[in-house]
Amino acid sequence: MDTNRLSKTLCAALNNQMTKEAYASQIYLSYGSWAEAEGYDGIANFLFRHANEERSHMMKILEYILERGAKVKVQAIAAPPPDPANVQDCFNKAFSHEVDNTTSIYKIVKMSLDEEDWATWNFMQWFVKEQTEEETMVMNMLDKIKIAGGESASGASLYSLDRDMKSTPDDADLAESKTVENP
Ligand code: FEO
């Protein structure tokens, strides 16, 4: 009896998304290594933690494909892009990668809607929320870098920004958790 509950198209899209999450992890790993070598230990710590998060996103999708009785295909991961030029460039690029990833997740949501595969649609909602959090988190970081002086930030302001990054939470607060009492 065929127990596969995923269509060929969705199975391929989810397998590709799994590789995209692994690629995202490699990017954060690579940017974290760059940051640490530049002396930004707090930023490196934040990026390394995030590399782990991306890896866990990959695992979530892998588990889901298996749970639905379909075939996981572990694919090669492309090499990460070159090192960023500075801290602002690092987070500008991280933001672009997150937006690319969001676009790819939205495509899977649309595919699951078209196929009326509600299990996959429901599963993907977690990723929709996660991407909003991640985009917000990087945007918040870019705001802080801008306040610190952007590309011409002084050593002193980058020093305190870096120090704060060690304790920066991994997820950003979303609008839906805000109230009048807790803006
Ligand atoms: Fe798993 Fe940042 O996307």
Largest sheet: none
The CATH class assignment is: Mainly Alpha
Strand portion, in percent? Answer: under 5%
Ligand types: MU-OXO-diiron
Helix content: 55-70%
Helix count, DSSP H or I runs of 4 or more residues? 5
Low-confidence stretches: none
CATH architecture: Up-down Bundle
Number of strands: 0
Describe this structure as you would to a colleague.
This protein is an all-alpha fold and 183 residues long. It has a single domain (8-177), classed as Ferritin, core subunit, four-helix bundle (Ferritin, Up-down Bundle), CATH 1.20.1260. Helix content is 70%, strand content 0%. It contains five helices and no strands. The chain is globular and about 65 Å long. The model has no long low-confidence stretch (mean pLDDT 94). The structure holds MU-OXO-diiron.
Write the layout of secondary structure elements.
Layout: H1 8-37, H2 41-67, H3 87-115, H4 118-148, H5 155-165
Bound molecules: MU-OXO-diiron.
MU-OXO-diiron binds next to helix 1, helix 2 and helix 3.
Concise structural overview:
The protein is an all-alpha fold. The protein has helices at residues 8-37, 41-67, 87-115, 118-148, 155-165. Helices cover 70% and strands 0% of the residues.
